Each structure stands twice: as C-alpha cells, then as structure tokens.
Amino acid sequence: MDRAxxxxxxxxxxxxxxxxxxxxxxxxxxxxxxxxxxxxxxxGFQRIADVSELEPYGQFSKWxxxxxxxxxxxxxxIKALSNICPHFGGPVGYHQMKEGVFTCLWHxxxxxxxxxxxxxxxxxxxxxxxxxxxxxxxxxxxxENPGT
Length: 148
Ligand code: FES
Known about the structure:
The protein is of the alpha+beta class. The protein has one domain: Rieske Iron-sulfur Protein. The chain has helices at residues 3-11, 18-31, and strands spanning 34-35, 38-39, 45-50, 59-64, 67-74, 77-82, 101-103, 110-112, 128-134, 137-141. Strands 1-4-5-6-9-10-3-2 form an eight-stranded mixed beta sheet, with no helix packed on it. Strands 7-8 form a two-stranded antiparallel ribbon. 26% of the residues are buried. The model is unreliable at 13-33 (pLDDT under 50). Bound molecules: FE2/S2 (inorganic) cluster.
C-alpha cells in the first residue's frame, strides 16, 4: 500500500454523516502532498508527471496546486478527471477503473471514465482536464480558459 492509499484509508468515513465528512475533508486538505508543477510558457499546460507513472496500473492521482487529478489510460488515450467526488469529496480513483467506470471509495458512486458523468446521480459530474503528452510527460491544463 503506497502513501496515498494509506492517507485515503485513514480519512475514509465510518458513516454517511455529513458533519463527519466535512471534518474529514478539512483533515484531507492539511495532509495533501502538493507537487510543484513545471510550467510551459504561454500555453496554459503544466507538466504533472512522467508518462511512466501510469505503469503498472494505468492510472494514478496527484495533487497539483488545489487540484486532485486522476490521470488514466483508456483505449490507448491518456485522460484526466477530478479525483474529488462531488458527493462528499471521496477519492474517485482509489480503485482501479473497471469496464470504463470508476467507483468512489466512500459511498460507491459510479462515474463514467470517458465523460466524468455520474451513473449513480445524474446531477453530478467530475471535471475533466485537457491533457497533452509531450517530452515523455503528462501536461494538464488546470485553468479552463487560460488567457481569458
Ligand atoms: S464521497 Fe460519497 S460517493 Fe464519493
């Protein structure tokens, strides 16, 4: 079990209590490991990882600035979604993607990997990030409309 898994296990709620989840979210914020991004000038993308970090599981999550990003490979394409569940903030990418679906650790809400759409609650959706693969790295556009 790696450090990220240990942190998420420690933070997992023991019940569905909203109050408890809010306390856990604030604990999570103080434990977040933030990576200093490498910035590409003028194009709004930041290098967040080497492509090799996708091995061996085909997915990983990483905090960059205020974003917890779930990066994964699907049908040979690298994609990125928010790793923060819109239900109560659980880790969407804790488990391995199965048949194109991520299942949140905390209450098992299911999300379609290709779109971020929640299959459990139609009113919820994960943010998707634009991705660029260059120089052996994965670059993510954190700001949705850079330059505007
Ligand atoms: S936090 Fe409840 S399903 Fe993700």
